[in-house]
Amino acid sequence: MKKEKTIVQDDARGDSPAQLIDAKIAQLSDWRGSMLAHVRALIKLADPAVVEELKWRGVPVWSHGGIICTGETYQKVVKLTFAKGAALADPHKLFNASLDGNTRRAIDIHEGETIDGKALQALILAAVTLNTSTAGKA
Residue 81: which H helix or E strand, with range? Predict the structure, then answer.
């Protein structure tokens, strides 16, 4: 099984993953940087024990007992992809992308849109609960 490259420790310059995510946000000098910073803050509020990493050529990843979600930025969307999203209840209907798969679900946020912070935090906590339960280990 091939291991994915993960930056968990400091990089060659001594920057931590959190500092590298800060730099990525700063590079996105438009609405995407602000939105990524906003959802990052909500994630960290929901789970203060969350681990921040960079994987797959600089994609922010938040983990706790396994991957919770990734924060990808594209030209027209900030995408939060939940690794086990299909197994999560979504009573507030935040998931609006990657709905056909058996495992992942995503939230696409476009310019000018807002996200329900309390609903996102509940989804984060549900993902952590799943990851840390015996059901999430499968």
Answer: strand 78-82
- Is this prediction's pTM over 0.90? no
**Which tokens hold the place of 68?**
């919770």
Round to whole Å and give the CA distance between 138 and 66: 11
Please tell me what DSSP assigns to residue 94: -
Does 7 have pLDDT greater than 80? no
CB neighbourhood size of 79 (10 A): 17
Q: At what angle do helices 31-46 and 17-27 cross, to 10 degrees?
A: 150
Q: Are 58 and 20 in contact (CB under 8 A)?
A: yes
Q: Cα dist. 90→62, 77, 86, 116, 132 in Å? A: 19, 20, 9, 12, 19
Distance CA 18, CA 53 (A): 7
Residue bearing the bigger pLDDT, 54 or 122? 122
